Amino acid sequence: MTKSYMIGVDIGTTSTKAVLFEEKGAIAAQANVGYPLHQPSPSIAEQDPEQILNAVFHTISEVMRQSGVPADKILFVSFSSAMHSVIAVDKLGKALTACITWADNRSAGCAIRLKDELNGHELYLRTGTPIHPMSPITKLMWLREEQPDVFQQTYKFISIKEYIFARLFGEYVIDHSIASSTGMLNLENLEWDKEALEIAHITTDQLSRLVPTTQIMQGLLPGLAEELLLLPTTPFVIGASDGVLSNLGVGAIEPGVVAATIGTSGAIRTVVDHPLTDPKGRTFCYNLTPNHWVVGGPVNNGGMLFRWVRDEFAASEVETAKRLGIDPYEVLTRIAEQVPPGSGGLLFHPYLTGERAPLWNPDARGSFFGLTMNHHKEHMIRSVLEGVIFNMYMVLLAMEEQIGRPSRILATGGFARSSVWRQMMADIFDQEVVIPESIESSCLGAVVLGLYATGRVDSFDVVFDMIGSTYKHDPMEEHTKIYKQLLPIYISVYRSLESQYQAIAEFQRQA
Fold first, then answer.
1. Residues 446, 413: contact at Cβ < 8 Å?
2. Cα dihedral 205, 209, 210, 211 in deg (nearest 10)
3. Over the stretch 181-239, which tens digit does the pLDDT of each residue have?
């Protein structure tokens, strides 16, 4: 019997990945292309949309080339994408701006004004996107005020996935999942919210056509099928956002099951069967299907802080790793493992790039607290890893007010390669943490959604046959006791510093 294959593409913040799956879920080939995030100042985080487009094209063609699979054996290509990006384009589809990413904080003042003066909380309750500079609605407010010439010339305001689909098919479409992360989609009727558009000073004509996440596109523009090594008629499933598809890809689709992801950034999410927002505005609510809504909270500061530790604290360790031919991160986790839980009372607040959930404060800043002469580099390394998990736990506590205590924690993302970090999560969360076999959960989620969209399965339950588990970590009681002592101090220190964040951030902007 001839095998069939599926391609899942994940357009991420630091790279695009394509994974070629056999229909039962086994990986046949994969490719990854990285690209820079331009950050000339703490508030700017942009990318070149053409670099990302080229990465998408290259990874698709590369998995086809690696595998040698005939084009007629590809069932579909399905997409996952990072959220909250904005690109202004003219009538010819030319980008008038860079791709302004979720990490760009230049619209911080607009977010404050939206929250305090423009009925922002009511807008959040209707749209499910917390009021924050990550949100495209605040980016549009900023563009109109700071780049009025560009704003006036713009034909469409789109995300990176819309940019790519326009280049593939010559049409501007946006799935309900990406649209629900713009701050402009009404969750009840899945239409553009009238008040949101008035706040942004745009019309529906300046946005893409809304389609479900199961929308299938066919008929690639001339020449692209040959470049991608596909047939012109290969179905492309528009897919959803990386966050909701990560939940699907790890099997966190049942009530009470929570997915905790730490990649460059991080998030904690669970699936509910109807739109659900937080009276305190701390969590998001994004669409997957009409009967699947993902609620949770994203954090800015995840694996990027481990990279920061590597680059700023660990030059000698990196050199040692190179000589030994091993991953520098493995060396750093071994160092962290030598330090007892709690890092000798050294706490790290991981807000080096501001913070989204649960603070929603772009001016938040990082800090070590409790430093003494008895602390060394290894304490600082471990406290950074613990600080990331403490902050994730604060998000989970906010979620628990809405959904109750989770029945299960599934952990995924690059951090899952570290046994030390995995155990920290189990100890701080005081729950069993299960690591699914699929690290590339967003790509797997995309193909499961593709199977559903193309009618090859009638539910998402097929995902349970496509994943296994690699590790399970039970909380260690003696560790959990230590972390329960430290958590109230961690929260108290954050609250005492909160009033000073804006002042120090303003000083840094002027320096």
1. no
2. 170
3. 999 999 999 999 999 999 999 999 999 999 999 999 999 999 999 999 999 999 999 99
Quick one: which of 242, 259, 243, 254 has its CA closest to 435? 259
Element (H, E) at 473: strand 469-473
89 near 96, Cβ under 8 Å?
yes
Q: Are 346 and 380 in contact (CB under 8 A)?
A: yes
Q: Mean pLDDT, to the nearest integer, of 156-171?
A: 98
Do the beta carbons of residue 274 and residue 289 sit within 8 Å? no
Task: Choose among 24, 86, 80: nearest CA to 49.
Answer: 86
Question: How far is residue 289's CA from residue 287's CA, in Å, rounded to a whole number?
Answer: 6
Report the alpha-carbon distance of residue 424 to residue 421 in Å, rounded. 5
pLDDT digits (tens, 9 = 90+) for 16-36: 999 999 998 899 999 999 999
Q: In this structure, which amino acid lies at residue 39?
A: Q
Total count of residues recorded for the chain: 511
Could you write out the three-class secondary structure of 163-191? HHHHHHHCCCEEEHHHHCCCCCEECCCCE
Tokens read off for 440: 């590339």
H or E element at residue 122? helix 120-127
Say if residues 116 and 69 touch (Cβ distance below 8 Å): no
Cα 198 to Cα 137: distance, rounded to the nearest angstrom: 10
